[in-house]
Amino acid sequence: MKGKLLSIVCFLLLAAVSEAKSCIFSWDIPTKYTDGTPITEPITYRLYYIPVGATVAQKIAEQTAITTPSLLCPAGTYYATAFTPTTAESAKSNILTLK
Fold first, then answer.
1. CB–CB of 73/23 below 8 Å?
2. What's the pTM?
3. Of 19, 21, 85, 89, which sits 20 to 30 A from 7 (CA to CA)?
4. Apex CA 6: angle with CA 5 and CA 9, to 5°?
5. Would you list the DSSP string of 55-67?
6. Are 48 and 59 within 8 A, CB to CB?
7. In 3D, which of 22, 68, 32, 33 has the Cα closest to residue 47?
8. What share of the chain is helix, strand, coil (3-state, %, to 5)?
9. Distance between CA 51 and CA 12 in Å, rounded?
10. What is the CATH number of domain 10-98?
11. Pairing state of beta strands 58-63 and 10-17?
12. 38 pairs with which residues across the strands?
């Protein structure tokens, strides 16, 4: 199975909490690899954050759930990736930008 890739789409839910933003990220569970074969292994998701003005992403969560707990979300760019025990990390999900 090495070489197969996962593809995910990430969604962002925002709720204003005082002056800070609280975010919950969620995504659709991928059911097939990019070559069309079914995924039969557990999937782990990583959530990344790039602060405004920065170029390097910081990993802010790694989990098997499809929804993050509520996170404090400063302005910047967010994206998710996915991987299984036998695959490399997927390409970035769609990019979410908070201003």
1. yes
2. 0.80
3. 21
4. 145
5. -S-EEEEEESSSB
6. yes
7. 68
8. 0, 45, 55
9. 17
10. 2.60.40.10
11. unpaired
12. 32
How confident is the model over 59-95, as pLDDT tens digits? 999 999 888 888 888 888 998 888 888 888 888 888 8
Question: For residues 11 and 93, what is the distance between their CA atoms, to the nearest angstrom?
Answer: 9
Q: Tell me: the pLDDT tens digits for 29-47?
A: 888 888 888 888 898 999 9
Helices assigned H by DSSP within 28-90: none
Residue 7 pLDDT class (50, 70, 90 cuts):
low
Contact, 50 vs 56, CB < 8 A? yes
Higher pLDDT, 84 or 7: 84
The token pair that represents 41 in the structure block: 């292994």
Two tokens, residue 19: 């002056």
- Tokens linked to 39: 């995924």
Distance CA 60, CA 66 (A): 15
Specify the residue for token string 């059911």: 31
**Degrees to nearest 5, angle at CA 82 with 47 and 77:** 30
